[in-house]
Amino acid sequence: MEEQEFQYYLGLLKWSMPENAQEEAVNYFSNKIEDKYISRLIQDTDKDTWGNSMKIIRSLGKDRAIIAIQWLLYLLKDLNWPGASESIEVIKQFDTNELIPFIDTVLDQADLEEDSMWIYGIKELIGRLGIEQSVLSNKVVLKKARA
């Protein structure tokens, strides 16, 4: 997959595009996306593509979806964003011990940004996964969570 081809199909993922074009792009990426492009489905896009991006990432299975873990956690900045709830569903596939270092990193970033909504999203994820807060290196940050 060349960069130009990636950009073309990425543009078709926008919800303003005709449904058949969106479906074509989702199907294309689901079958042909290379690992180096997976994170960019979220990283290089905006809210208007995240719902479709999550369809693609979900279709890849957990072994390839883990590539985008940092960006799946980014979607938790606002649980009302398109793709946020789908992100949680994908994250549920992973082993919780595998997730803890990523959650710690994102929690530190959310604290650095003073983003209480993001902290809330992470706290919500932790609750849904049944992760004990005591295993996190920066668990005190969770007290700053605001919906």
The radius of gyration is 16 Å
Shape: elongated
Helix/strand order: HHHHHHHHHH
**What's the count of strands?**
0
Number of domains: 2
Percentage of residues in helical conformation: 55-70%
Largest sheet: none
Number of helices: 10
List keywords for this structure.
single chain; 147 residues; 2 domains; DUF5071; Cthe_2751_sf; DUF5071 domain-containing protein
Please describe what this structure looks like.
By secondary structure, this protein is mainly α. It is 64% helix and 0% strand. The chain has 10 helices and no strands. α2 (19-32) crosses α5. The termini are far apart.
What is the compact description of this entry?
It comes from Paenibacillus ferrarius. This is DUF5071 domain-containing protein. By secondary structure, the chain is mainly alpha-helical.
